Amino acid sequence: MKTTTVQLPEPIYKKAIAKARRLGVSQSKIFRDAIEKDLAEEANGPTMFDVMKDMCGCIKGGPSDMAARHKDYYRQAMVKKYGKNHH
Fold first, then answer.
1. Do 54 and 46 contact (CB within 8 A), yes or no?
2. What's the Rg (C-alpha) of the chain?
3. Given phi > 0 = left and psi -120 to 50 = alpha, else beta, which region is 83?
4. What range defines the domain where residue 18 resides?
5. For residue 4, is it within any domain?
6. Position 68 in a domain
7. Which of these, 6, 29, 3, 27, lies nearest to 15 by C-alpha position?
8. Distance of alpha carbon 83 from its chain centroid, rounded?
């Protein structure tokens, strides 16, 4: 392992130390785990929500129950486009 020095704002430092005490682990483990988690999230790339969050709620005039009944609306659109026998 390599040793490094970082400067942290006091509130973050205090929270990390409190967490280490609460969990009974070293301060270094808390910092390593936090950095590892951040790097893993970055490696996985943005989530679909991250990519589309600016679009959420931007469509006006659609059905208010779209989230709950999206399958029904999909079926209706397919019947309208392809006829009753489309599966």
1. no
2. 24
3. left
4. 10-82
5. no
6. yes
7. 27
8. 39
Return the DSSP state at 28.
Answer: H
Q: How many other C-beta atoms are found inside a 10 Å radius of the C-beta of residue 15?
A: 13
**pLDDT at residue 42, rounded to an integer:** 74
The Cα–Cα gap between 6 and 45 comes to 25
Number of separate domains in the chain: 1
Q: What percent of the chain has pLDDT over 70?
A: 93
Residue 62 near residue 52 (C-beta atoms within 8 A): no
58's tokens: 């931007």
Q: What distance in Å separates the CA atoms of residue 34 and residue 17, rounded to the nearest whole number?
A: 13
More confident residue, 14 or 58: 14
pTM over 0.85: no
